[in-house]
Amino acid sequence: MQGVLSGFAVIAVVIGVGYVIGRRGSLGDQGREVLTRLAFHVASPALLFTTLARADLSVIFSSRLLVTALSTAATACVFVAFGAVRRWGVGRTTIGALCSSYVNSGNLGIPIAVYVLGDASLVAPVLLFQQIMVTPIALTVLDLSGTGEKGSLWQRLLTPLRNPIAVGSLSGVLVSATGLRVPGAVMDPIALIGNMSVPAVLLAYGISLRGSAAPGRGRDRHLVLLAVALKSVGQPLVAWALAAGVFGLSGAPLLAVVVTSALPAAQNLFTYASRYRVGESLARESILLSTILSVPVLVAVAALLG
Question: 139, 153, 157, 215: most buried by Cβ count inside 10 Å?
Answer without folding.
Answer: 139
